[in-house]
Write a structure and sequence with these properties.
Layout (H helix, E strand, L loop, with lengths): L3 E7 L3 E2 L9 E5 L2 E5 L14 E4 L4 E4 L3 E2 L9 E5 L2 E5 L12 E5 L4 E6 L8 E2 L2 E4 L3 E9 L2 E10 L4 E4 L14 E5 L2 E8 L3 E9 L4 E5 L2 E2 L9 E5 L2 E5 L2 E3 L10 E2 L3 E5 L4 E4 L1 E2 L14 E7 L2 E10 L5 E12 L1
Parallel strand pairs: 1-28, 2-6, 7-11, 21-27
Antiparallel strand pairs: 1-31, 3-4, 4-5, 5-6, 8-9, 9-10, 10-11, 12-14, 13-14, 14-15, 15-16, 17-18, 18-19, 19-20, 22-23, 23-26, 24-25, 26-27, 29-30, 30-31
């Protein structure tokens, strides 16, 4: 992919959409994208409805759910294994960090509370979560008494949590990092650790060891709360906060609107250019909901909403697909 470029497409939306929000989560099962959580006013959860977007008809609807419905929250994460969605943590309306772990069966539309005790990750928000075909991974985030750097895996077959070794001081506790799993190895990219970070770390579960990864090329500037997906051997990141606001979470810092790819074999970053077009480009933003999805049979990055440089919550939806020049 020496001549990688890419294209953003803005998707039309029909039906009852979630509306403008940030600090929410999205995941895709089949040809449907599910969205949960988020805020319109800073730190105030909007609702606890589960919205679904049909990627074929571009139509939103609200899922009629049963079971242990999670209360509203911000800074929450979602990931899917097969037809089951997993949701962990977040922060409630009283700004309390949460450690509830839920599953949602997309076939029966039923929520189940799987754990909310010390068998799994501690209370946190603005952490990162990803999945492969057997595990759901949780890393870092904002804990009750500071930023975290612990890594956990939930084995969906045995229905139990696994706590991995912590990376040590080289990988500081952080919120809003990128998290990716490629060929069994788990990658932590950037994040906010009191300052925007530009380091990359990798954990090998087979060896049980962490390593700090030295990268080269067109390296992105330090950032957090960006969108992250895996396409082949590449970790793709888009947007994020590159300069925090003096108001913290109440304000909007400086955001990026760029797309970069990290080749996990050569460890070289490359800027994945797209043709600037304000009609089809999401522009600078952070705290988006994001997931990998298919468009015309090609895997890409789906982005919904987020926060803008003017501190306005957004309600649009885009997909970025790479192409080879």
């Amino acid at each position: 992919m020496a001549g990688v470029q890419g294209k953003w497409v803005k998707l039309n939306q029909n039906g009852t959409s979630p509306g403008a929000r940030s600090s929410h989560a999205i995941t895709i099962v089949g040809d449907k994208a599910y969205i949960f959580g988020g805020e319109f006013t800073p730190r105030v959860p909007v609702d606890n409805k589960l919205y679904v977007f049909d990627l074929n008809t571009l139509t939103w609807s609200v899922v009629d759910v049963t079971g242990d419905v999670p209360p509203p929250r911000v800074g929450v994460t979602m990931a899917a294994v097969g037809e089951t969605i997993y949701v962990f943590g977040g922060r409630d309306a009283a700004h309390k960090e949460l450690n509830e772990f839920y599953s949602f069966d997309t076939r029966t539309n039923k929520w189940v509370l799987l754990s909310n005790d010390d068998s799994g990750p501690t209370h946190r928000s603005y952490h990162s979560m990803t999945a492969d075909d057997r595990h759901v991974y949780v890393f870092g985030g904002c804990g009750v008494s500071g930023r975290l750097n612990d890594l956990w895996a939930y084995d969906v077959a045995y229905q139990k949590w696994i706590k991995y070794p912590t990376p040590g001081d080289s990988c500081k506790g952080r919120g809003g990092p990128g998290l990716a799993v490629i060929q069994g190895k788990i990658w932590v990219v950037y994040g906010f650790a009191g300052m925007e970070m530009d380091d990359v770390h990798c954990f090998d579960p087979v060896q049980g060891k962490w390593s700090q990864v030295e990268t080269s090329g067109e390296k992105p500037t330090a950032r957090s709360v960006f969108s992250t997906v895996v396409i082949g051997k590449f970790i793709i990141i888009y947007g994020g906060e590159v300069d925090p606001s003096d108001l913290g979470h109440l304000g909007a810092g400086k955001f990026s609107g760029e797309v970069y790819g990290l080749d996990t074999e050569t460890l070289v970053w490359k800027k994945w250019e797209d043709v600037p077009d304000l009609e089809t480009h999401p522009g600078p933003r952070g705290w988006c909901a994001f997931a990998s999805g298919l468009r015309d049979g090609q895997l890409g990055l789906l982005v919904y909403g987020g926060n803008s440089p003017s501190n306005d919550r957004l309600d649009d939806i885009f997909i970025f697909t790479p192409c080879v020049a």
